[in-house]
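Support case: user asked for a sample of complex input and structure output to validate their parser. Sending the pair below.
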Amino acid sequence: MSGTVAGVEARLPIRSDLDLVWVRQHVRQAAAALGFGLVDQTKLVTAASELARNTLVYGGGGEMAAEHVCDGRAQGLRLTFRDQGPGIADPERALSDGYTSGGGLGLGLGGARRLVHEFSLDSTPGVGTTVAVTSWAARPPRQREEPR
Amino acid sequence: MPEHETAAEHTTPASDVGKFLHRRREQIAQRWADEPLFRTVFTVSRDEAVEAGRVVVDALAQVAESGRVADTDAAGFTAVREQLTRMVASRARFGLTSGQVSTEVDGLRPPAVNLLVGDLHEATPEHLRECTTLLTVLMGTLRLVVLETSLSEGQALIDRQHLELLEAATPVIRLWDGIVAVPLIGTLDSARSQVVMETLLESVVDQQARFAILDITGVPMVDSLVAQHLMKTVAAVRLMGAECVVSGIRPAIAQTIVHLGLDLGTVVTRASLADALGYALNRLGADIVLATPGGAGPR
Amino acid sequence: MNHDLSLSGTAHVPVLRLGDVLLITLQGDLHDGTAEQLQQDIAEQIVRNRVTGVVIDISGVEIVDSFLGRVLAEIAASSRLLAARTVVAGMRPAVAITLVELGLSLPGLRTALNTEAALELLAMTTPGGPRREPR
């Protein structure tokens, strides 16, 4: 993850499906305030919704921290989702499309990764999972790795 | 914390320099207003230049007091970054390079240091040396902050121009009531294809278009990445309730697509833009009939 | 997803009947619970009113994540089993781009630019051609 943190803006609990609505609204407002275009806002809010739902459904609840980051060139928003759930035994597999352990379409993690600029997953079985994503505003889309 | 201040009064050069900057704020700002950096940027009035100088002095005082004189990320600089950006941009419009602007910032150092030396004529030589060194370091840091600003301004300009170029290279043409087309010319990379997708989708809404034609006659090469972008665009257009037709697939490209084993499966393709238009018109229920030699079309 | 959706706050989205078409207009941010409730309501209404089409206008929806996407796909699939066709109308460009990047292109879903076009599409594809309302 690049960029320096300009301050933690908010911590939001993720305990119920009502909280997912707050997460989406908060991320939408924060992204708009940082100058994200409409499409980038929508992508980040959607990614946040996927990740928050993972936190709720698989992690048994947790929280999201939203930080404003800056790398000298651009303003960014970093979202960190933490839970103390069972963790993910095989992160590589969890990121592949079609993988699911909870009856969804299995697009949550892999799908969210495609919607953001930076993505990191840290999980320890029995301890919990932390997913951090960052997106940058007002920057031409970067050449990304070709998915295999 | 008054006790601490008293205790530290004669010991730390940083707090001394901070106090000096507060005390001599007005004089420093006045002298800077005559230096090229301030004089040429703030041309409305001298007061304007002095006021801008005061803001910079305040920032430097804050940084000195925080003890982080060599740190370009020190909190004190945050307040003046925007003003410095504007000053740098103004000098850049004059045709100055980042290096020349940096030299102008260096020109602010002597007036400040001279004032400091004058103020400390009673101090020990060692204290005097420490204080002037500190102020010199601080002015050097200011120079770095300005340089950083001008470099990031340049990068931001390049980014903006890149995006504008992408948008300019992606015109959406309304071919018929309910039919829009984008003729793509040149290489289709990730950045470009994202702009294409957004522009095309927006025009589908604006024109309430039932058909969107992506013409790739001018695209030199179709590899699996380009094909993937095309498929994504087609899928997004479909989600919005319109139909996407890919036209202009030259024989060589058709062969490449087959060789690569790419599945354009559900995508409607046509050899030329004219064929695609014909297909769309037909689906809209319009018939194209050649006019009879007499002039009047069939009615 | 069996977490308790606290039956207390589950709101209903209004389902409007126009001839033999159900018209649902989604607005703003939907709770998961509300979306699941809608899925049930639509199935019940199809059976009760013997409608042959369902139009879901999502022009007021700012995001569709995989959950809401799945709900829409399931509404279409279950309606089909009850002999009604579903058209999702008015998806915003930003939403469409995001869904595609997410990997959710919803191939089984019929779509239209707006409600009007959706009703037209249903009328055109009704067995027996365009219908005339009895007067």
